[in-house]
Amino acid sequence: MNERAEPPASSSSADPLILIVSGPGGVGKGTIVDALLRRDPTLLLSRSWTTREQRPGEHDEAYVFTTRDAFEKHRENNGFLEWTEFLGNYYGTPVPDLRDGRDIVLEIEVDGAQQVKVRHPESVLIFILPPSRDEQRRRLIGRGDPDHKVIERLRKAEEEEPVGLALADYSFVNDDLDHTVTELLSLIERLRSLAGR
């Protein structure tokens, strides 16, 4: 794990953490977030909306799969904390309900992470990296991305990584899922302790 010298300060011990898990396609963000939620049921996932098609075998709960028209209407009504257009599809994070005090996890692209950090500077950006570009390619192929999308996502990763690392509060190389998740859970406990919780 790499981290900045000082983690972002929470504005109040009663405020929930806003945890942003970001990184290029194929680094395992979704798998990591699923494991985090299983191991810490107090975390709340803010399920993103997307206009992309559901992949074969992808869980219905992975996103709110929607149309461009419905997405644009929700956006016009200020329903998104952040949104972006990525490789021809919209992705957006709905404005979370912070009233119940649960810590929120956002699994979003780098562009969206930048928007959230501007709106919520106290949020904690955790940037996930692949162990290698070859492994990232293997994971993209393994999840069913067509060849042209694999090429696009690998090219996009070259652009996103320097931006994401510059913005990140913490970064992890996801070379072993269990180890990565355990490290993330330790980090979350540390952040809660720093917030006096």
What is the N-to-C succession of helices and strands?
Answer: EEHEEEHEEEHEHHEH
CATH topology title of the domain at 2-7 and 16-46 and 102-194: Rossmann fold
Largest sheet: 6 strands, mixed
Head-to-tail CA distance between termini: 23 Å
Count of DSSP H/I helices: 6
CATH architecture of the domain at 2-7 and 16-46 and 102-194: 3-Layer(aba) Sandwich
| Helix vs. strand class | alpha/beta
Kindly summarize this structure in a few lines.
By secondary structure, this protein is an alpha/beta fold.
List keywords for this structure.
single chain, four-stranded mixed sheet, six-stranded mixed sheet, Rossmann fold, globular, alpha/beta, 40% helix, 197 residues, 10 strands
Write the layout of secondary structure elements.
Blueprint: E1 2-3, E2 18-22, H1 29-39, E3 44-46, E4 49-50, E5 64-65, H2 68-76, E6 80-86, E7 89-94, E8 104-107, H3 110-119, E9 124-129, H4 133-142, H5 147-167, E10 170-173, H6 177-194
Parallel strand pairs: 2-8, 2-9, 3-8, 4-5, 9-10
Antiparallel strand pairs: 1-10, 4-7, 6-7
Helix pairs in contact: 1-6, 3-5, 4-5
